[in-house]
Amino acid sequence: MTQASINVPPGAPIDKDKRNWIVTTSVIGGAGVAAAAVPFVSTFQPSERAKAAGASVEVDISAIKPGEKLTVEWRGKPVWIVRRTPEQLAGLAKLDPQLADPKSERKPGEFTPEYARNENRSIKPEYFVAVGICTHLGCSPSDRFATGAQPSLPDDWAGGFLCACHGSTFDFAGRVYKNKPAPDNLEVPPHMYLSDAKLLIGEDKKA
Ligand code: FES
Predict the structure, then answer these.
(1) Domains defined along the chain, listed by start
(2) How does pLDDT run across 53-83, given as a tens digit for each residue?
(3) Is the CB–ligand 1 distance for residue 134 below 6 Å?
């Protein structure tokens, strides 16, 4: 449901170096879906060449409410920042038996940096940061934050993400369920907090 997009007014020339981000955040739960477009002007706008080289992206996360997800682009990929609720966090440990790699022990250096090798796969428990690309064949999974029975998901669904391409499912820490096409958990990109409100994606202290 939640998407980030580069919004260009109809008919306007596309100036890729000066384009602004329009980021959509959403609240998903129960019966309803509410979405609000929030204009978000990048604090800096690296050139296309710099972006291709992997420039880091600074993100203001102060407006993300519990249960919401913000998507930004880094190296041409969607990066999710999910602010998990206490209930969503509390449910993670119970899911371990159903997951293919609950402790992120497979390819740890590739998909899970050392500082995210914990129960929540994150630096701060509340915020989950992940590359929103399925580890099977590269589709972008969709939010399935609501719990319980719903199409394409088990009746005891605990909330998370569904890759509709071939049915892989991931929990709120991006951990893939057993016996799914996706071989690995979602990638946690290098990242670090510059302050409580500012997240830097693409760099970490490595310390
Ligand atoms: S690309 Fe996600 S399940 Fe195949």
Answers:
(1) 19-201 (2.102.10.10)
(2) 568 999 999 999 999 999 999 999 999 999 9
(3) yes
For the CA of 180, the closest atom of ligand 1 is 3
Decide whether any atom of ligand 1 lies within 6 Å of the 186 Cβ.
no
Q: How far is the CA of 183 from the centre of ligand 1 (A)?
A: 10
Distance CA 60, CA 64 (A): 9
Evaluate the CA torsion angle 11, 16, 18, 20 in order and state its sign: positive
15 alpha carbon to ligand 1 midpoint, in Å?
33
166 labelled catalytic: yes
Tell me what pLDDT residue 45 has. 53
**Out of 52, 166, 178, 194, which one is annotated catalytic?**
166
130-182 pLDDT, tens per residue? 999 999 999 999 999 999 999 999 999 999 999 999 999 999 999 999 999 99
Within 8 A by CB and 6+ apart from 75, the residues are 51, 52, 54, 202
Question: What are the backbone dihedrals phi and psi of residue 193, each rounded to the nearest 5 degrees, phi first?
Answer: -95, 130
Quick check: CB of 181 below 6 Å from ligand 1? Answer: yes
Q: Do residues 56 and 200 lie in contact, with contact meaning Cβ atoms separated by under 8 Å?
A: yes
C-beta separation of 78 from 141 below 8 A = no
